[in-house]
Recover the amino acids of this structure.
């Protein structure tokens, strides 16, 4: 009798409960991303930047949590893509438009539309190519990912809030970023994904120490730290291209050798 009662009051199955957590994280991320637009409308651009950063953190967590607890699903994958379009496409475009791009009126709005379209195209391509089984390619994205692209787009605003020094007219810089960043996102340039980073056990303490210092800097010097991190990411793009081509050439050579050995047999 007690067993039947437990079955009746069971709301979701164990599998569905595992799916619920990563999807909840994704929904929290999209709420934070939409809130960044509200902050921009209120001219609270500092909070807009922080909201996009938190949305990026949520975006990196939902997939990892889903894989960790074996809660991946097709619904979660589609929900994640729709969330990315809002949080890293629509939201950054609106923030930059309210900040400076509205000064060039129709052209500014056209640049916003182009950026959001490129984000949507980049995510659509990612959903198609992510099923291709090349284990060594897991360390690389094809083009700049949407969260990184959003932060790069916000770099002029982040720079101003860092108070390093002031720029008289940001309009041309912002317009240039709205051209360069979308092109990087839809390009086939390999960029580091940081999904599979192998850290020796002896170096774990130093890694945790470094993370602690970074978080401390992020709390104390928020915008300066984010801006410098963005510059480091930009400098890593050519490094990732060279690294990718080296690994690709080695794997192509290994595949050719395997084919030759099979032909000899």
């Amino acid at each position: 009798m007690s067993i039947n009662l437990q079955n009746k009051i069971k709301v979701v199955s164990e599998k569905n409960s595992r799916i619920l957590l990563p999807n909840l994280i994704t929904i929290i991320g999209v709420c934070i991303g939409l809130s960044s637009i509200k902050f921009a409308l209120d001219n609270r651009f500092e909070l807009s930047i922080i909201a996009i950063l938190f949305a990026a953190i949520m975006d990196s967590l939902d997939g990892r949590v889903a894989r960790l607890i074996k809660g991946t699903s097709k619904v979660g994958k589609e929900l994640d893509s729709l969330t990315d379009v809002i949080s890293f496409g629509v939201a950054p475009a609106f923030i930059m438009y309210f900040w400076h791009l509205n000064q060039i009126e129709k052209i500014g709005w056209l640049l916003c539309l182009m950026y959001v379209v490129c984000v949507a195209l980049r995510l659509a391509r990612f959903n198609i190519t992510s099923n291709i089984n090349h284990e060594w390619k897991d360390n690389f994205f094809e083009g700049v990912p949407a969260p990184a692209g959003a932060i790069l787009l916000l770099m002029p605003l982040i720079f101003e809030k860092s108070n390093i020094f002031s720029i008289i007219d940001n309009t041309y810089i912002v317009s240039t970023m709205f051209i360069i960043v979308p092109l990087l996102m839809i390009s086939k340039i390999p960029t580091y994904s940081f999904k599979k980073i192998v850290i020796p056990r002896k170096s774990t303490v130093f890694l945790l120490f470094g993370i602690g210092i970074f978080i401390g800097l992020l709390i104390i010097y928020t915008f300066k730290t984010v801006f410098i991190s963005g510059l480091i990411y930009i400098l890593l793009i050519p490094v990732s291209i060279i690294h990718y081509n080296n690994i690709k050439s080695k794997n192509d050579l290994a595949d050719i050798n395997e084919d030759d050995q099979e032909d000899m047999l």
In short: The radius of gyration is 22 Å. Residues 11-128+137-264 form a domain with the Four Helix Bundle (Hemerythrin (Met), subunit A) fold (CATH 1.20.120.1760). Strands lie at 140-142, 190-192.
